[in-house]
Design brief:
Layout (H helix, E strand, L loop, with lengths): L1 E7 L5 E5 L4 H10 L6 E5 L5 H12 L3 E5 L3 E5 L10 H4 L7 H10 L1 E5 L12 H9 L3 E5 L2 E5 L7 E3 L5 H11 L5 E5 L5 H12 L3 E3 L5 E5 L7 E4 L4 H13 L3 E5 L7 H9 L3 E4 L3 E5 L9 E3 L10 H8 L5 E6 L9 H5 L5 E4 L2 E5 L8 E3 L3 H13 L3 E5 L2 H6 L3 H7 L3 E7 L1
The protein binds ligand EPZ.
Length: 420
């Protein structure tokens, strides 16, 4: 039996919804806790599969981990007795590679398998390795296992050819306990990079400049336990903003930092969609067919690549033709074939998709090729005529907490079933 999501399309989303903790922050902060020999209390974690995978990986390293309701995890790093992340569990997700930066930083030795994660093209980790080597580590890759070790880690200047989120965070982790100062130039500026830096500083690290192009990490002797609350998930928020507009609804999202969704808000305003920004919430109201616009994904603060997929569904309902250019991920249009089976009219040439608007999508059985493609299928199902059955929803469960409950609370006709 396989779990599927079934959606009866055509219902407007209206009401108020609370946004959960940021998945891409959570999956970096949890492994970062290995840097401390004390107790780290991490709050506002989203209830998603990746969090439980990381709990499992921490326990296999010997850490004590307790999870309480409401998304609080307590990690006791004093009992960690291994520097090798369990291969099978680590392969399930890309973020397991943060254990390399964390374990190398604390024990000067680390092992982890080549990371798994969403199939959105070649996802190299050469910039991570370049950073570890700049700090003085020897990095080898044997039989799919990444091994890093160093007699000593010394602070160094590191320039990233691409403002890679993963590499920026992983180098920050490895540099915290190094001797001397590390400078990361062309660093990623995503909100979750800042959140991880704040977590490290709460443990006693000395990280400055997170959120700008240049991050300076001054090595310290040791890191202690701390308490940290994960920031809201701006990609989850953006997904629901897009769903609200696509269904011509009126939704207020709470626990949102409006500046984090600035790129999405600006693009939706350009489409003629009403966006109201408050201190910690955003309201989306769309009563008429939005205008077609062009979208180019860029590292933060540009339009996020993680919202490219649901955005294409919204653009399919717009008045006119839109051009969507994907500059961050290597190949992130695989889901378009599934959308076309619902009647979407999209032409993809390499990194560019030409999206015809004013299309009436029709429900059918579709497949979720990755996490955000799954989100796109859900948005498509919400607006399609008839019933849409979405398979391979394990991807969706990795990144969206209580998706059906949240959408049902806004009036969606959505349920999860076990089907052959
Ligand atoms: C993080 O992936 C996110 N995942 C991704 O979200 C997100 O799409 C991506 O950042 C961009 O925002 C997590 O945080 C767990 P990158 P990551 O390193 O760290 C090049 C989701 O849906 N690159 O910024 O892998 C390469 O071209 C997931 O939540 C190198 O060349 O992103 C890559 O396509 C999907 N060498 C681009 O940077 C490297 O060593 C972006 O990668 C690393 C990256």
């Amino acid at each position: 039996m396989k779990e599927k999501i079934i959606i009866e399309g055509g219902k407007k989303l209206t009401g108020v919804l609370n946004i959960s903790g940021n998945k891409n922050s959570a999956v970096a902060v949890i492994p970062a806790a290995v840097l401390s020999g004390g107790k780290c209390i991490i709050k506002n974690l989203p209830n998603i599969k990746d969090v439980y995978h990381l709990k499992d990986l921490l326990e296999k390293l010997g850490a004590g981990v307790e999870m309480s309701d409401g998304g609080t995890m307590t990690v006791d790093g004093s009992t960690i007795n291994s520097y090798s992340a369990d291969s099978e569990a680590a392969k399930q997700m890309r973020a397991s590679y943060y254990f390399i930066g964390g374990l190398l930083g604390r024990f000067k030795k680390a092992e982890a398998p080549f990371p798994g994660g969403c199939d959105i093209g070649v996802r190299p980790i050469d910039l991570h390795i370049k950073g570890f080597e700049a700090l003085g580590a020897r990095v080898t890759i044997e039989h799919g296992l990444i091994k890093a070790e160093a007699e000593e880690l010394k602070g160094a200047p590191i320039y990233l050819d691409f403002a890679s989120v993963g590499a920026t965070i992983n180098i920050m982790l490895a540099a915290c306990l190094a001797t001397g100062t590390t400078t990361i130039e062309n660093a990623a500026k995503e909100p979750h990079v800042v959140d991880v830096a704040n977590f490290l500083n709460a443990m006693g690290a000395n990280v400055k400049g997170a959120g700008t192009d240049i991050i300076k990490i001054k090595g310290v002797k040791e890191l202690k336990g701390c308490e940290h609350t994960i920031i809201p998930d701006f990609i989850e928020a953006g997904t629901y903003m897009i769903a609200a507009a696509a269904t011509r609804g009126d939704v207020t999202l709470k626990n949102v930092i409006p500046t984090h969704v600035e790129a999405i808000s600006a693009k939706m305003k350009e489409m003629g969609i009403e966006i109201f920004e408050y201190e910690d919430s955003v309201r989306v109201k769309c009563e008429k067919k939005p205008k077609a616009v062009n979208v180019k994904t860029l590292p933060y603060p540009g339009f996020p690549t993680d919202l490219q997929q649901p955005m294409v569904v919204l653009l399919s309902t717009a008045d006119g033709t839109s051009i969507v250019t994907e500059t961050v991920s290597e190949s992130r249009f695989k889901y378009v074939d599934e959308l076309k089976r619902m009647g979407a009219k999209i032409k993809v040439e390499d990194k560019v998709a030409v999206v015809e608007g004013a299309v009436n999508l029709m429900g059918t059985s579709v497949y979720s090729t990755d996490l955000r493609a799954g989100a796109a299928m859900v948005v498509a199902g919400l607006i399609a005529g008839g019933e849409t059955i979405i398979g391979n929803i394990k991807h969706i469960d990795r990144g969206y907490e209580f998706l059906e409950d949240k959408l049902r609370s806004l009036g969606a006709g959505i349920r999860r079933v076990e089907l052959d």
